[in-house]
Design a protein that fits this description.
The chain is an all-alpha fold. The protein contains 6 helices and no strands. The protein has a domain of about 130 residues.
Length: about 190
Amino acid sequence: MPSPEPQTWYALFKDFQNILGTLVGFGGVCLTLWFNARVTDRRRAHEIDHDRNTTRITLASELTVIQRSLRDWNEVLDGVAKEGHVALPRSFDAEGGCRGYRSALAKIGLLTETEIQTSVFAYSQYEALSKMSHDMQKQFNPDNVDPAFRAAFQAYRTALASTKSAVDSALDALAKHLVPKQTTTPH
């Protein structure tokens, strides 16, 4: 095959310069759109991962505070029961202990199914325990220890242990997926 003469190449480019320019320009636009979409997808994935981890940290932090409170209160009531006595549980407001949970509800769908189920169950148990403590405060007189009061005290201790177990399960589920914050070192 004979090699084309330079004038032939020049004529080819001259005749098709509009279409070649259009193809190069179109290719550049396509490449730019692809690159920008890829950058946007990566940024969005990073934001979702950040929101997911922040939601886990919020719930785990709040549940840790609840866990400590339940553990301490459980030890007090165990001591009272060992002495053969009964007591009214301290009345508490679950709303104050669930602020992080309420704020995380909008993004709770980012978590795994197990994390959602165990966290929601733990908080519902905690709220039920709060209601139970309020009801016992209203219903029983600590100076009049009758069989109903003893039964309610035992039921409360059982509910407290169940709530603590639910909180422990939620913390375990959240801990499995917590991503530690990466620290950057200056260069």
